[in-house]
Amino acid sequence: MEVEQDQDVDRLNDLLRGLRLHSDINRETGFPLHWNRDDCHQHIVLSDDMFTATYVGPGQTHNNASSVRANFSIDPSVGIYYFEIEVVSMGQYGYLGIGLSMKSTNLNRLPGWDFYSYGYHGNDGLVFNSSGKGDPYGPSYSNGDVVGCGIHFSRREIFFTKNGQNLGPAVTNEIMIPIENEKGEFISMEDPLADLYPTVGLMTMGGVLSANFGQKPFKYDIDTYVRNNQF
């Protein structure tokens, strides 16, 4: 029994070490550390430290939506991953979103609108799961709010938080997707939760979001979440 308990403690400590992504972590770890200037739509300007994203586009139609991804994808071996944003300014209409996306998704979209993309939007509180049609999920969010996005890989579950409160599962039980060639022949199975990047999107003049990838304490108590949801 003591051996099993020691193993459980070791596994929990491994998860917690993976979540504590402080600024002194070596860049070669492959964890997301900041936004990526080379994976950023032209209508978004990043601060010098690459934590703050400011929208500078016209923001008139959905065609003006813009996103930016982090510098690294999330390694599924971490088990549970989490990051937060603060809404410095919601802009004119509050069209913004936080979520996850694969490298192949279009940066000219808000998180969740395209395949392999998942997002929780501020203006209406809807969650978008690889679709332009959102589902009711949580409250809207605006200036001063801190919103987080987490993923539990073994449960295949994505969740969001607002001002330190967990809003519950937003995306669950994502299935493997069969990939076929042009002849309709099966090639392989693709995992829609593999190779995901932290992502934010903006679509309104004056929108500003600041990210926390673990360089400072989170608003949400992610350590307690990990302790209670480690398996």
TrEMBL record:
SMART domains reported for this sequence: SPRY
InterPro entries linked to this entry: B30.2/SPRY (IPR001870), B30.2/SPRY_sf (IPR043136), ConA-like_dom_sf (IPR013320), SPRY_dom (IPR003877), Ubq-SigPath_Reg (IPR050618)
TM ranges: none
Parts forming coiled coils: none
UniProt xrefs under PROSITE patterns: B302_SPRY
Residue intervals of the B30.2/SPRY domain: 13-218
Protein's name in the database: B30.2/SPRY domain-containing protein
Domain of life: Eukaryota
